[in-house]
Amino acid sequence: MLGAPGAGKGTQAEQVARARAIPKISTGDILREAVHNGTAIGRRANDIMARGELVNDDVMIGIVRERLDQNDVRNGFILDGFPRTVIQAAALDEIVKGRDPLVVIEIVVPEDELVRRLSRRMVCEKCGETAHGAAAKIPDCQRCGGRLVQRSDDHDAVVIERLKVYNRQTQPLVEYYQTRPTFRSVNGSQASDRVASDLMAAIESAASGVAAKGVRP
Length: 217
What we know:
The chain is mainly alpha-helical.
């Protein structure tokens, strides 16, 4: 799934993963765990994300390559937060060579809506669960009971910088993928359940079209 910070990739990826009984692989979750544990890479990642920048390609590619070698992805997987650059996308093509083609979904949300969403969301400092809307006004996480806090990179000034970085470095992914028969765009400004419905329809459309044509990676 492609989309700017705050577009809803994580929420929608969770739903698709449950519906299709496949794992959701979130590089954001992996990095946040490293930050929480205070590892060397976690400290590096925390410094980078606090400035509104993206973690470098080599680190992300290595994490994803190792994860996609595990047995539980044989029947498919959902990638949330990767790839974020054309270099990462090219590496992913090599990693999945010989498997079924990638279905690429772009969730599109206007920038002013993204800023509003990000500046109001909260995350659990214990499990990393994200809380939006009414759930963000409750002091404790509804999943594990941990304390909800605002991420250091969700303050307005950092949010705006993150979106600039996204547009500069990650938007070219749309150009990289958009000519493929497995590429689809979904309006992420709608209610969450409508986005989910459109997303599932887009996945089915892309997958069935590829199967009919016999396209391989």
